[in-house]
């Protein structure tokens, strides 16, 4: 298409099919058309796709094929990639774009059944179907990290071997290792003469990467059931561990059904039971070790950083969470930051088992300032309530705080319950996404864009009149949408009605900050997560403190630049004095400024805490000092107070290593579950049995056997 524009067919929800010649085609799913050009930003393109397929912008990747090449998928990840895609396909009538979900490896099925056989080699644990058998459609549950092809990166040889074993089980073939060490792993199909082969080794960047892969099987042996014996107990334990952690009542029969459905393996009950026992034992050990380390670490935080708060709480269902607030952060917030706190729940990319519950503020330069954080297994009402109670008890001074958060998980009620005199506003980013979800396909994209822009004006409107004008504009397009806007409680998100002070901040990007901090290659433990955050905060406070020592202006640099820009606009305004402290300022409209009460009828002075251009015109007319009419939180002096304190290092002397005693250990409850059926009641007068009592081969106690043993593994 001429003019640097192309028509894309955006496809989502299907799967790739590999043909006999190695080319790929896309089968199934949903398809929608969209026109793009070279000037479109990647973020805009991704946002359109997110809205089109109702998916989070972080939840998918974008790929396409080059013209006349259906074997290699090209990834679009930035503005330059998007421009190149438009240029490469400029002569094509349409271009197919594939929207693929992240964290789930796409299923590539062959148009002709792959021939594979079975070997009873002692190093593998997979089975293969007979020639021409119908392939089992497997779910993606628990299959993250499977083999996808050349260039895939792993944390090391062990994760690669684990993924290879999953891949073999999923695709029903067995393999053997030709080379297997820390530097390189080479595997071949266990059937002699088969061409399937894979090789992975460390790259120049020290990453363990797949270098070569021939994914074609040329073997034709018949399946042997002996392949099932290669599905070891440890392999089963690794597969089910995550689900067992979330569901302690996960039964062996359910394990068998899941392995059959997801991997095509027909194991027996004993294999599932033993695998479950191993997984349960490992979970118990890791839980106790994590508790011991966390308890030690919390004590060390309070010893090395007096005034800090570090609390570890455990529950009877083997769940625990930790709350940390450093003295330097608490002091910086109370003496230098605006009384504004953002509450965010952040899923960690480095360790998906945990979520960060964080309270962040903003400093005088509008940078994120972490106040406190908690690591928990889930974002629940109880966890948020516990977090807020700990946060309130950590503060040494009382003041009215404005909280901003998403509208979910009972935070509105929890904030009102713990901080009675506070204000609570909605995260505007989430609110706008909710508004977009109300827009159906009956409107064109241009109309949708106008409606979204009008709704954003509702949010940022400082006066009730401005808000009503925006609602009227929305009502002209849709009565239902205007009713939705009014029913969504504008008093807690619109500047025109909100009674708290947000100082022009409507949402937080804390998620990006914390995930960039915890960008570990290997999955970090809970203690590592807390310590990485501590180190990053320690570096942040030092660097910002040193930077502020070079400032010479009374206002912080960004605020000073903003005031200079507003002063230029103020010079064109006409000021009329009506009384000693009240002035009339004329531009397109007439605004009244009260220099004593820091008020202007445009309400921007009150909303942002900085003089608007009308107030600046009056200050200039009266020969006043601009600095005297700015909120104190924008002064360089207050910025330096924010970072005046330091976070101290924590020596690792006394670290609770494996087998070492831990001082003041916390009581870590074991994993427990309620047994099925009515609880047994011991008779008042038990009968004396004359039979010899059985002895359990598992726990060595008398009165039962291994199959009926109720002791934890």
From TrEMBL:
Keywords for the protein's UniProt record, in alphabetical order: Metal-binding, Zinc, Zinc-finger
Domain SWIM-type: 591-623
CDD domains listed in its UniProt record: PB1_UP2
Highest taxon, organism lineage: Eukaryota
Zinc-finger as UniProt keyword: yes
One Pfam family, short name: MULE
Protein source organism: Dioscorea cayennensis subsp. rotundata (White Guinea yam)
InterPro entries: MULE_transposase_dom, PB1_dom, Transposase_MuDR, Znf_PMZ, Znf_SWIM
SMART domains assigned to the protein according to its UniProt record, in alphabetical order: PB1 (SM00666), ZnF_PMZ (SM00575)
Keyword Metal-binding: yes
GO molecular function list: zinc ion binding
Name used for this protein in its record: Uncharacterized protein LOC120252539
């Amino acid at each position: 298409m001429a003019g640097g524009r192309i028509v894309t067919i955006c496809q989502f929800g299907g799967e790739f099919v590999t043909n006999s010649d190695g080319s790929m085609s896309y089968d199934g799913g949903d398809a929608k058309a969209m026109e793009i050009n070279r000037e479109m930003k990647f973020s805009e393109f991704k946002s359109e796709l997110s809205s089109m397929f109702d998916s989070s912008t972080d939840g998918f990747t974008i790929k396409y094929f080059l013209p006349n090449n259906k074997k290699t998928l090209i990834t679009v990840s930035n503005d330059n990639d998007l421009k190149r895609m438009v240029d490469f396909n400029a002569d094509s009538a349409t271009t197919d774009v594939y929207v693929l979900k992240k964290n789930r490896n796409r299923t590539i099925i062959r148009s002709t059944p792959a021939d594979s056989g079975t070997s009873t080699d002692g190093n593998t644990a997979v089975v293969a179907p007979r020639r021409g058998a119908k392939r089992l459609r497997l779910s993606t549950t628990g299959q993250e990290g499977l083999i996808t092809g050349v260039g895939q990166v792993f944390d090391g040889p062990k994760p690669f071997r684990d993924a290879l074993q999953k891949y073999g089980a999923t695709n029903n073939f067995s393999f053997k290792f030709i080379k297997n060490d820390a530097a390189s792993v080479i595997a071949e199909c266990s059937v002699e003469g088969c061409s399937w082969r894979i090789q992975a080794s460390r790259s120049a960047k020290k990453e363990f990467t797949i270098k070569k892969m021939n994914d074609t099987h040329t073997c034709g042996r018949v399946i042997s059931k002996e392949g099932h014996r290669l599905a070891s107990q440890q392999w089963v334990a690794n597969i089910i561990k995550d689900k067992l952690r979330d569901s302690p009542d996960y039964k062996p029969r359910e394990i068998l059904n899941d392995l059959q459905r997801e991997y095509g393996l027909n194991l027996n009950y004993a294999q599932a039971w033993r695998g479950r026992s191993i997984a349960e034992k490992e979970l118990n050990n890791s839980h106790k070790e994590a508790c011991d380390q966390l308890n030690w670490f919390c004590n060390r935080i309070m010893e090395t950083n007096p005034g800090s708060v570090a609390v570890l709480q455990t529950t009877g269902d083997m769940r625990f969470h930790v709350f940390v607030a450093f003295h330097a952060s608490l002091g910086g917030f109370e003496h230098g930051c605006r009384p504004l706190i953002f509450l965010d729940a952040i899923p960690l990319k480095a360790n998906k088992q945990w979520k960060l519950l964080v309270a962040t503020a903003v400093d005088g330069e509008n940078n994120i300032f972490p106040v406190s954080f908690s690591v928990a297994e889930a974002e629940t009402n109880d966890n948020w309530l516990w977090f807020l109670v700990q946060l309130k008890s950590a503060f040494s001074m009382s003041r009215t705080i404005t909280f901003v958060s998403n509208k979910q998980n009972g935070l509105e009620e929890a904030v009102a319950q713990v901080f009675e005199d506070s204000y609570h506003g909605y995260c505007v980013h989430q609110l706008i996404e909710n508004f977009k979800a109300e827009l159906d396909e009956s409107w064109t994209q241009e109309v949708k864009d106008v409606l979204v822009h009008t709704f954003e004006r509702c949010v940022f409107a400082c006066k009730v009149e401005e808000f009503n004008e925006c609602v009227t504009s929305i009502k002209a397009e849709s009565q239902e949408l205007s009713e939705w806007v009014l029913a969504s409680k504008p008093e807690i998100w619109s500047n025109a009605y909100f009674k708290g002070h947000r100082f022009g901040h409507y949402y937080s990007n804390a998620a990006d900050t914390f995930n960039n901090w915890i960008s570990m290659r290997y999955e970090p433990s809970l203690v590592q997560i807390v310590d990485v955050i501590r180190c990053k905060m320690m570096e942040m406070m030092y660097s910002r403190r040193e930077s502020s020592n070079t400032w010479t202006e009374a206002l912080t640099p960004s605020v000073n630049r903003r005031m200079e820009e507003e002063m230029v606009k103020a010079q064109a305004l006409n000021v009329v004095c009506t009384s000693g402290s009240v002035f009339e300022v004329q531009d397109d409209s007439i605004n009244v400024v009260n220099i004593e009460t820091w008020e202007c009828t445009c309400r921007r002075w009150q909303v942002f805490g900085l003089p608007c251009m009308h107030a600046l015109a009056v200050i200039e007319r009266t020969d006043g000092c601009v600095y005297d009419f700015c909120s104190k939180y924008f002064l360089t002096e207050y910025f330096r107070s924010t970072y005046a304190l330091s976070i101290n290092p924590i020596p690792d002397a006394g670290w609770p290593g494996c087998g070492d005693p831990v001082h003041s250990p916390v009581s870590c409850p074991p994993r427990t579950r309620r047994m099925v059926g009515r609880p047994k009641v011991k008779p008042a007068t038990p009968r004396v049995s004359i039979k010899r009592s059985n002895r359990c081969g598992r726990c060595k106690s008398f009165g039962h056997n291994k199959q009926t043993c109720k002791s934890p593994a």
